């Protein structure tokens, strides 16, 4: 997500190298007039560009496919976590601010950060009084409790989100969820002693709890309004905007929620009158709309397509409207350890050495899109440790070394497998094609199969049964930290407990006891320095399994149209623009 996420809030001390947005060539930076002045690339690293307090207008976002779900309790995309803050208030959230200031967790629906027991196993939050849903009813602690229960314990209806609460709440492994539970008490380890107090009882210490509470899974949901998977069709807002229209293939329209009280909300200014979100727009068309100032932002936040980059980077006036932040994300190749021949570590090592990472980066646009990677944790995430277990000269691959490991795994002449990628992410498809070419040099034939991003995890790569049946031993994957610490980055992609029947993100199906135990040890360590050191150990142990092939540390080349106001890059949400702040001067 996002990401983000002992006994008190643990300060995240990391050096963030981000770029940010700038005003258009006709803009007066900071004037709020939306016109011209001192535009320059990466201007939003330390400031909010084209700052404005002007109310009104429409903000328009476009996406190349669509979300996994806009339901706050059924999503795992970073951009949805960011966007959902407009209609769903979590217990705490990330501060809308520029650069590293955006990493600070601040109270939202709660009056303060979580109060922890000495062992970091019991966490208490107090809700603000008088905060209302769009129907005028007051939000209570029971609504937050129910939201957590439905989002974590009902995979038959809501399978997309992370599994932290299920793994760490007492009794979480046995609770059947609100749709199957016959009692009215719900999960006993979430207590609501009164309307404004919620207490989480964990089965083991969890020092990052405030980051977890920032997930949209803690956004309140009324049990009477919940319709399971179809709740997304008629969600009840707790934020400044509510849905006036929603179509899963076309998009959504949000308008002001008259029950929202700005006095109860220190986070959101809610400047636009309307927010439009359009789905299934061709990626290059999105870029054209941005350059022509016909849309406010590509809401996915992954940046301009490689075909568009020359139009922007080759002109000083256009480059001045760009931001090129590290996304705190890794593009990688997942090798499924339960699909032959990748059940043999030597075959996995062969792929590690075969990949020409530098040519892959060059194929998608060069250094503006990222740098060759050798670790799972990116350099901008707390716990990063620099190492390379499978080094090759210039990150160009080593055919001889790869063939040596192929022979060790019993496939000296290579083998055939399936490689999946997301069809609506052109750069990912290009990278997959480059990877396919690298593998040919060692006799490995990888058939590329493409699927839309909104179904990639729910129907294909994230479904072990489908993966095994279709011999999908190799899967393209990109991941950003759920919160900017090693645990927030690693847990949901390498922990055995994250493997699930559908919507999974541990695509390798890695279930290594050493990895699992180190994750538990680290998150239960109150001392920040010691905890961060553990994440480097986890990273190295994962790389020893050779199940993850780090490809490149991702960067986003973002573009800001002239009419967009209050634009800044947030590292908390993967180096994309902060949609809570963004408004339009039109």
For this entry, give a set of tags.
five-stranded mixed sheet, 16 helices, six-stranded mixed sheet, alpha+beta
Structure description:
The longest helix has 18 residues, at 528-545. The chain starts with 57 loop residues before the first strand and ends with a strand. The chain is of the alpha+beta class. It has helices spanning 78-83, 141-152, 164-168, 209-213, 283-291, 309-313, 316-319, 345-354, 357-363, 399-408, 426-440, 453-460, 464-469, 486-494, 513-523, 528-545, and strands spanning 58-62, 92-94, 105-107, 115-116, 122-126, 190-194, 197-201, 241-247, 251-256, 274-278, 297-298, 322-323, 326-335, 370-372, 416-422, 445-451, 474-480, 548-555, 558-559, 564-565, 569-570, 576-577, 583-584.
Q: Topology, pairings included?
A:
Blueprint: E1 58-62, H1 78-83, E2 92-94, E3 105-107, E4 115-116, E5 122-126, H2 141-152, H3 164-168, E6 190-194, E7 197-201, H4 209-213, E8 241-247, E9 251-256, E10 274-278, H5 283-291, E11 297-298, H6 309-313, H7 316-319, E12 322-323, E13 326-335, H8 345-354, H9 357-363, E14 370-372, H10 399-408, E15 416-422, H11 426-440, E16 445-451, H12 453-460, H13 464-469, E17 474-480, H14 486-494, H15 513-523, H16 528-545, E18 548-555, E19 558-559, E20 564-565, E21 569-570, E22 576-577, E23 583-584
Parallel strand pairs: 1-10, 1-11, 15-16, 15-17
Antiparallel strand pairs: 2-3, 4-5, 5-7, 6-7, 8-9, 9-10, 12-19, 13-17, 13-18, 14-18, 20-23, 21-22
Share in helix: 10-25%
* Separation of the first and last Cα atoms: 30 Å
Describe the strand arrangement of the main beta sheet, using strand numbers. 14-18-13-17-15-16
Rounded mean pLDDT score? 91
Assembly level: single chain
Low-confidence stretches: 1-37
């Amino acid at each position: 997500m996002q990401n983000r996420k002992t006994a008190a809030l643990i300060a995240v001390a990391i050096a963030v190298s981000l770029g940010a947005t700038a005003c258009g060539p006709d803009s007066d930076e900071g004037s709020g007039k939306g016109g011209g002045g001192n535009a320059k690339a990466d201007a939003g690293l330390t400031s909010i560009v084209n700052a404005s307090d002007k109310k009104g207008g429409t903000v328009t976002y476009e996406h190349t496919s669509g979300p996994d779900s806009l339901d706050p309790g059924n999503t795992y995309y970073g951009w949805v976590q960011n966007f959902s803050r407009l209609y769903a208030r979590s217990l705490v959230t990330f501060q809308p601010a520029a650069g590293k200031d955006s990493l600070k967790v601040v109270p939202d629906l709660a009056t303060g950060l979580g109060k922890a027991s000495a062992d970091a196993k019991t966490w208490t939050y107090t809700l603000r009084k008088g905060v209302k849903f769009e129907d005028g009813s007051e939000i209570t602690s029971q609504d937050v409790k129910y939201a957590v229960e439905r989002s974590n314990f009902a995979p038959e209806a809501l399978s997309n989100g992370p599994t932290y609460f299920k793994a760490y709440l007492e009794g979480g492994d046995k609770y059947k969820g609100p749709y199957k539970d016959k009692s009215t008490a719900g999960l006993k380890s979430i207590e609501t002693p009164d309307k404004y107090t919620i207490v989480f009882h964990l089965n083991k210490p969890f020092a990052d709890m405030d980051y977890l509470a920032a997930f949209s899974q803690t956004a309140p949901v009324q049990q009477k309004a919940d319709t399971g998977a179809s709740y997304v069709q008629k969600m009840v807002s707790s934020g400044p905007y509510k849905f006036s229209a929603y179509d899963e293939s076309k998009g959504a329209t949000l308008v002001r929620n008259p029950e929202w009280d700005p006095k109860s909300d220190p986070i959101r200014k809610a400047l636009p009158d309307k927010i439009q979100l359009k789905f299934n727009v061709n990626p290059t068309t999105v870029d054209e709309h941005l350059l022509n100032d016909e849309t406010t932002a590509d809401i996915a936040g992954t940046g301009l397509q490689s075909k568009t980059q020359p139009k922007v980077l080759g002109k000083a006036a256009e480059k001045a409207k760009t931001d090129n932040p590290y996304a705190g994300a890794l593009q990688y190749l997942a090798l499924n350890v339960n699909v032959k021949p990748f059940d043999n570590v030597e075959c996995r090592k062969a792929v590690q050495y075969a990949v020409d990472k530098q040519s892959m980066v060059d194929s998608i646009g060069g250094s503006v899109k990222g740098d060759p990677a050798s670790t799972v944790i990116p350099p901008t995430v707390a716990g990063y440790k620099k190492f390379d277990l499978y080094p090759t000269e210039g990150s160009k691959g080593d055919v001889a070394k790869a063939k040596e490991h192929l022979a060790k795994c019993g496939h000296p002449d290579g083998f055939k497998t399936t490689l999946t990628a997301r069809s609506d992410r052109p750069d990912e498809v290009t990278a997959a094609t480059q990877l396919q070419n690298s593998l040919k040099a060692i006799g490995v034939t990888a058939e590329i199969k493409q699927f839309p991003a909104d179904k990639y995890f729910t129907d294909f790569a994230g479904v072990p049964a489908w993966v095994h049946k279709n011999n999908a031993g190799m899967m393209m994957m990109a991941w950003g930290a759920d919160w900017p610490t090693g645990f927030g980055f690693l847990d949901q992609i390498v922990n055995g407990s994250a493997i699930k029947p559908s919507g999974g993100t541990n695509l390798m199906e890695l279930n290594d006891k050493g990895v699992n135990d180190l994750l538990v040890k680290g998150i239960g360590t109150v001392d920040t320095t010691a905890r961060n050191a553990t994440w480097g150990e986890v990273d190295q142990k994962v790389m020893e399994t050779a199940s993850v092939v780090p490809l490149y540390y991702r960067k986003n080349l973002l573009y800001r149209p002239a009419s967009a106001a209050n634009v800044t890059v947030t590292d908390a949400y993967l180096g994309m623009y902060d949609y809570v702040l963004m408004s339009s001067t039109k």
